[in-house]
Design brief:
NAD(P)-bd_dom_sf, about 325 residues, Epimerase_deHydtase, two-stranded parallel ribbon, seven-stranded parallel β-sheet, Rossmann fold, about 15% strand, 2 domains, alpha/beta, UDP-galactose 4-epimerase, domain 1
Length: about 325
Amino acid sequence: MTEPFHLIVGAGPVGRALALQLADAGTPVRVVTRSGGGPEHPGIARLAVDASDPDRLEEVALGAEVVYNCANPGSYPKWERVWPPLSASILHAAEASGAVLVTMGNLYGYGPVDGPMRRDTPLRPTDHKGELRARMWRDALAAHEAGRVRATEARASDYLGPTAPTSSGLLPMYADATLDGRRATVFGDPDAPHSWTAVDDIASTLAVLGRDERAWGSPWLVPSNPPRGVREVLRALGERAGTGEPRLRRMPRWTLSALGLVVPILREVTGVLYQFERPFEIDATETTATFGIEPTDWDALLDATAAAWHQRAVAG
């Protein structure tokens, strides 16, 4: 009989951090990616599987206690094509195996909001990426309410942490320039308050949600430190790295919109630019009160992030 295990689909920064946390705690882990990549650990089995193949993923998930959807289909223009079959396959695997389904979500589904986002904030997306993420959650919730699966979702803001790659958001891209002494072109208002979520805190939240039945049937926001503007975060990273005050140049929205007509990825950025033009804040006090999860100490998080991102920026 196969020993119960936890199955993680995806080995990006969150999937890797989650796999290592679980394995270090003694939980057998299987990590599924197309390439068979993932962190090396005696408690982690890495499998090369196309997770959008429902039959193959169902086979791999047999015996799983929890299935975590930490997949990343790549750049925004691929989402409409890649996400629907992938999320449906992961949901099917959780249903077929009897595992709890824990999805790594984001905040796109809320759309622009006045005030901090909370667990019960209505989903009112204003672009196709938010519509897609909202639909994924509603599909999982419908299956949960029908008794076919136990589902929950963790929702985090933009990643912060030493393992967050430049492809994980705008802040790492800006820091790649400023921590190398170059000027960064920024979108939106660099002084608008913005929540940032530590990668390790996302992994910790996912691990708790998979095991605590109080989480099932609802989304949960990942505890994050008080919001800071892009400029403030880049300044703090520069102080730690010894690179000084960040030099920023703000791109006008009309310029971004014009470039978006010919550059698909910039067109996609325009659709979520509201996140950086106004306060974009998480209120995860309910998550902390229910599960006892606290965000990583801000100074410690910046210390580790600055060292790793500076090294990466200088290496080019």
